[in-house]
Please model this.
Amino acid sequence: MGFRTRQVHLVRRSVGLAQPTDFSVADVELPALEPGQVMVQNLWMSIDPYMRRSMEAEATDLEPWPLHGPLDGPAVGRVIESRNPAYHPGDLVENMSGWQEHFISNGDRYVPYLSPASSLAVRQAPGARPQDYVGLLGIAALTAWGGMARLARIEAGNTVVVSSGAGTVGSIACQIARIRQARVVSSAGSEDKVRWLLDRAGVNAAFNYRATSADVALRELCPKRIDLVLENASPEHLSACLPLMNELKQILIAGFVGTYSSRGNMKIENFEYALDRFLTIQSYRIMDFLDEYDTFVADMLGWRAAGKMRLEETIYSGLESAPEALCALFTGGRIGKTLVRLADG
Ligand SMILES: NC(=O)c1ccc[n+]([C@@H]2O[C@H](COP(=O)([O-])OP(=O)(O)OC[C@H]3O[C@@H](n4cnc5c(N)ncnc54)[C@H](OP(=O)(O)O)[C@@H]3O)[C@@H](O)[C@H]2O)c1
Model:
């Protein structure tokens, strides 16, 4: 008899905001391991904004999630049984087989977004906790690091604007910009998040975009205009930045989380400033930084140990809470990285 486990399945492709009822929890049987295979028990899974687009039947840059089948997403787990000499019971393995408590891997090497979901990378950096591999050392963190530590052309004293500053990419990007001695201005969707940005993330100025329009706030908070934008939020926010950019400066786009529940709204205004001020505008992806993974890990753990980097975690417990965790990402209120704890260990 095989091994029983649970998976979350998508049962409906909703329009607009995702609902927990778009998902169900399925009890499934996994077969016995064949030679070369490995059984993994996931401990933590990541909840990410791009998953809203995976729920759609067609996405321009993603494989859609199937209906009534296993989903994928960043996770970290432990090998509990191995018929592959490269893996041993107890190994901590990063993988893309989130949304399930256990899965079988053929032992392929994990490359984010490029390898099969069940591929594995053994992780054992000194000082890292298991959940760090879907948090401080996860895909969103690498996005922030790639943007702010590698692509950003900034000097001490430059004004850097980061949207969605209390989210994962945003909060890490703000702190790296501070480490690079920039003057950081950030936005978030509540007064609590603004307070967190000022008191805990150490930004120089912050505003609540739900209470004050980005146009008005940025004009006031950026008296020397803007040298770099790291955009996470929306075309509206980017449109408000454009007239305030200094000449020859840079805009990095990690994503537009505000458009993921309604893809129609992609209009960018004030684009003439991009031409008149000779701006560099670049959308980028984490694959560009995979060769530098070890440096990224050393930087993040070193900064955390030195008290210069923190990542807040909003933690849900149990596989059945994962749909609610994903839906809540788009209604605000949570600071930092959203994680689901699937098992202790
Ligand atoms: N390029 C890449 O390879 C890559 C990789 C990972 C992530 N990303 C992108 O980076 C961005 C941030 O991702 P993340 O992992 O940091 O997400 P996250 O931790 O879930 O944070 C997302 C933040 O987005 C804000 N938000 C939610 N709905 C919004 C809306 N309708 N309008 C404006 N803001 C909204 C929320 O903050 P407020 O309450 O403050 O609004 C939330 O804190 C996303 O656009 C994501 O797709 C890109």
